[in-house]
Amino acid sequence: MSAEVWLVTGGLGFIGSNFVRMALRERPDISIVNLDAVTYAANPANLADVMHDLRYSFVKGDIADERAVADLLAHRPFDVIVNFAAETHVDRSILDADAFLRTDVLGTYVLLKAARKANVRRFLQVSTDEVYGHVPTGASNEDAPIAPRSPYAASKAGGDLQVLAYAATFDLPALITRGSNTYGPYQYPEKFIPLFITNLIDDWPVPLYGDGLQVRDWLHVEDHARGILAVLERGENGQIYNLGGDNSRTNLEVTQRLVELCERSFETHVRHVTDRPGHDRRYALDCTKARAIGWSPQHDFASGIVDTVRWYRENEAWWRPLKLGAFADYYETQYSKRGTH
Ligand code: DAU
Questions:
Q1: Which end is more exposed in the chain, N or C (fewer Cβ atoms within 10 Å of the end residue's Cβ)?
Q2: What CATH number matches the domain at 4-182+219-243, 1.20.120.80, 3.30.930.10, 1.20.120.420, 3.40.50.720?
């Protein structure tokens, strides 16, 4: 019998599935229950390799469904809750933010209430550097004011504030991680890097927003998952920990590299299209706190991006079905009316 049971929400998503795989590998003493609503971005194939692990089980459910969450926690005691479940795509939040408010704010609140009742040992909220908003110079540390500028970022900030309120008011042993832009295997192809790789593999153009000089700090998903595990194990309750990749690049630089790696030409394959409304120009994180508990990113972007392109080339059977049906409709809505920059 395993010593601890961890509830991981959103474990069929990109970062969640990488975390579940890593935690099962590195912590033979735990078992994991994955609560996931199986929304469009979730994919059971992300965890096909752990499906038969006796320490892993799956429950379909929505974190914003109070009764479902209460039933699950009444049925089984959990020592730890890690909340990955979220709507995460900025462009979708600009089209319609209802699901973002429901999952990222209300869902987090429902889980916090349940966690308090269940007396968990740890509650970890997986958040984002986007809550700090645009960072013109320097880097945000965890004391920087939050200034979210997209409906997505505002929803994540709302969730974070509830977590901090529960820690302060009820002494809930809660922590928050704020990760930077994450890339690597199993990322749903609506996001910049997998969208561009899969389009380029298919000899399609790629839509670069505005001048492409926006800066993002790229964190490999294994480093992100390892950072969350480190904070869970060694972080201090009530604290926030930034997890940045230490790999800042403009979108233009990343696009140029992806075009090269996919053996296409910039002139024929890159379209500068109308910018995202309210597009944050730059994110940058100060990760001194996470480094002080022994975490630092291990993947260098130069090799990480080569490996990632290779992974998408070798795993077409994983992503091809994802780009059909509802995705094709979304792509049409998101991109067909975008003019040229
Ligand atoms: O910073 C952490 C955040 O990173 C996470 O909290 C979000 O969930 C995640 O989606 C990501 O947010 P971004 O908005 O930075 O990621 P996205 O992949 O949508 O875009 C990355 C950059 O590429 C951004 O500056 C917009 C640009 N972009 C994106 C798409 C989808 C394009 O130029 N063209 C595109 O088609």
A1: N
A2: 3.40.50.720
